[in-house]
Amino acid sequence: MIGQLGLGYQAWRAQWLSKPKLDQLRTKRLRHTLAIAAQLPFYRDHWKDVDLTEITGPADLRGLPTIGKPDFRGRLDDITVPTFNESNARVTYTSGSSGATLRLTHDWPSTLYCNAAWIRAHMAYGLKPHQRTAYFRFEPVKQGLTAKLRIFRNEFVPFESGDAILADLRRIRPHVLGGYPSYFADLIRMVPHDDLRALGVRWLYAGAETMPAPLAKQLKRIFDCPLIDMYGSTEFENMAFECTHGNRHVTDDSIILEVLNAEGEPAAPGEIGDIVVTGLRNDAMPLVRYRIGDRGAWSDQTCPCGRNFMLLPRLEGRSLEAVVTPTGKRYPVILLDEDLIHIDELFQFQVVQEAPDRLTLNLVCAPGTEAETTQRAVKALVDVFDEPMTVTPKVVSAIPRGSGGKVKAIIPLEQARGN
Ligand SMILES: [Zn+2]
């Protein structure tokens, strides 16, 4: 218990550290992580051409090769410290965008630190410990220490009928609604908007899937409150959070987040590139320069909130989720929804790439507006591309969920063909 509170305090303090103190902490944690990794067969092979004595701090990390899930599929025991197992560590699985799962082992101190980092993320945008969250996802999450202490209480709301959801929400009286964007899309279709607004929710927060811009706009209008996007993963837990200034800060005390350009070199501020992450907390399964599959851009600006954690103003979601045109141009969701954003009657969409030049646009529309919404959405999507693309609309009542209960805004060609 004392240990847990101690780690919580450390996480709380870390966000307010001066730049030199933060650099010191990151260097110390990185050296510790590299020392553990260097003992594991996977990294011994992977780093056989590297002189590890030259890697003395975060700036030297570029001297190490990056790793991805395909590199250690089948070699999980080689990347996990052998003294850790289900009896003394937390074992989780990720659902990859391909549907392939990966087993992850997290030691308990890192789990506790990451829990504290989630609490810190909630508090950064103003949530108080006594406030309640109602959340929607495909299954309830396990309740931890915070539930026992009755702080940041959260309650799972199952999706049965609109009436049942509303009854649950009226009983919980949540300050916050949290969940996957696809569940928010279902919510505003199943429950009358006046009833939702009357709940007086103060914040909405979304994660796990890419939030479609038209849905974000619709949610803000219905609930008349801010919508906060959290960036996290099963591998590293909370990776970035928003402060009250609306800036997204990377959790620099628990990860080193690098943005790499197409040549694999550090991207300049503002330049979109692949996100590569080194975990600084998990002694059971160190992930060093791990290609997480997301893209984004960092900023060298400082935030008036006083946190020295790096800013990540752009985040594109999973890099696999992109339409690739016949000439090879990539269109992630962030580009595709630029025009769709202006159609209020479009609640949710999904672009399925059937062929290099042919897309199916699945649409969830405001009732009674299907014909007009479809016409506008198709035009908006066709206009995004610099080359001719055929878009076939399909009005649906809900976007089907994929593996792990997630809904994807884009089903890329290779996955559409695999279905
Ligand atoms: Zn800030």
TrEMBL record:
Keyword Ligase applies: yes
Gene Ontology MF annotations: ligase activity
InterPro entries: AMP-dep_synth/lig_dom (IPR000873), ANL_N_sf (IPR042099), CapK_Type1_Caps_Biosynth (IPR053158)
Residue ranges occupied by any AMP-dependent synthetase/ligase domain in the UniProt entry: 159-279
Xref: SUPFAM superfamilies: Acetyl-CoA synthetase-like
Pfam families (alphabetical): AMP-binding
Sorted UniProt keywords: Ligase
Record-linked PANTHER family: CAPSULAR POLYSACCHARIDE BIOSYNTHESIS PROTEIN
Protein's UniProt name: Phenylacetate-CoA ligase
Species annotation: Stackebrandtia endophytica
